[in-house]
Design a protein that fits this description.
The protein is mainly beta and about 130 residues long. It has one domain. Helix content is about 15%, strand content about 35%. It has a five-stranded antiparallel beta sheet with strand order 2-1-3-4-5, with no helix packed on it. About 25% of the residues are buried.
């Protein structure tokens, strides 16, 4: 039987959440609250200012080290954010999954609909 050789490649993940922005919108897409972090340690709790809501939306963007996603969410409406958020495709196409500094440039975008936010002991919990 012929021998098959494979190569062992370890794919990395970013070592932190670079240029992290968390924004809260009401169900109609109006900005309610939010917080920006230059860098957040993965796996740690974050103190984010939100508003208590039974049905809101959260948008979480990590723009990557060097801000691969140039557009900041700010206090714009959700519709304006969705129309204007862009990522630099030339930077993304050059990301090497085996190089840590390259992987740190990887952007992530998460849109959560129908989120409930409560406040307990001065902390906002989703």
């Amino acid at each position: 039987m012929p021998q098959v050789l494979t190569r062992d490649v370890t794919e990395l993940t970013p070592d932190a959440l670079y240029n992290l922005e968390i924004r809260q919108y009401n169900s109609a897409g109006t900005h309610l609250a939010g917080t920006t972090f230059a860098q957040a340690t993965i796996g740690t709790a974050l103190d984010v200012t939100l508003q208590v809501s039974d049905d809101c939306q959260l948008v979480i963007v990590t723009r990557g080290d060097g801000k691969t996603v140039k557009t900041e969410l700010g206090t714009r409406t959700l519709q304006k954010v969705q129309e204007n958020i862009t990522a630099d495709s030339t930077v993304i196409s050059r990301i090497n999954p085996t190089d840590q500094s390259s992987m740190n440039k990887m952007p992530y975008v998460l849109h959560l609909k129908h989120v409930k936010v409560v406040q307990e002991s001065g902390k906002y919990i989703i």
